[in-house]
Amino acid sequence: MPEVSYSQLLNQYHTAISKAQNYQEELAKKKEQWEKREREFNITEKLTRELCEDILAKDGEEMKLGEEYSWSSIPINKLIKKTGDVFRQYNSDRTELEKILNKFNTTYDRVLNNYDGIIHMETVAKGLPELYTFNNKARRDEGNDTINIDNKILEAYKTHPKRFIINSCEDFKDKIKKLIEKMEEIL
């Protein structure tokens, strides 16, 4: 083994210390970059969740589900997928409406202006689901479909200045009385 002088050892020691300091500085920079990216990710995730919740809140079915579980408990990737599905369905419905309006050479505002008032009679499937029965020949869809259709109708006429909503009643006669009252109010 060759003999190493004290100055050589000291030089190697200082080189090792210098490298260690460089590694520490590099590690500190990487840690700072990582923390910055983590802060940015947290902000992005928060904003993404807020956007998803805003979109999901416009869907009646999701609002019902939102009472059963919290959107904040859903992993972000699943929340984004769920929001994308709701958004695509919304745009599909909207495109369908636009096609119908174009077919009749009219606009949404013109359609609304054709009505002195809108009276929406809430489906019993929504307000009092325990009273919703399937043995009624007039019914063509199931409870959930009925609720979705009800929500779409509510959405379609939401901007009409004289829109009235008659909630479900246990006695249908009470609902009819309310309907007559609202008709008189419109006329």
Structural classification? mainly alpha
The overall strand count is 2
Q: What is the helical fraction, as a range of percent?
A: 55-70%
What's the gyration radius in Å?
A: 32 Å
Biggest sheet strand order reads 1-2
H-E order: HHHHEHHEH
- Helix tally equals 7
Shape: elongated
Strand fraction band?
under 5%
Q: What is the terminal-to-terminal distance?
A: 111 Å
Mean pLDDT, all residues: 86
Describe the main β-sheet briefly.
2 strands, parallel
The residue ranges in which pLDDT falls below 50 over 5 or more consecutive positions are none
Question: Any chance you could write out the topology, listing elements then pairs?
Answer:
Blueprint lengths: L5 H51 L3 H9 L7 H28 L4 H6 L4 E4 L2 H4 L15 H14 L6 E4 L5 H15 L1
Parallel strand pairs: 1-2
Give a brief description.
With 187 residues, this protein is mostly helical. It has helices at residues 6-56, 60-68, 76-103, 108-113, 124-127, 143-156, 172-186; strands spanning 118-121, 163-166. The chain contains seven helices and two strands; from the N terminus they run ααααβααβα.
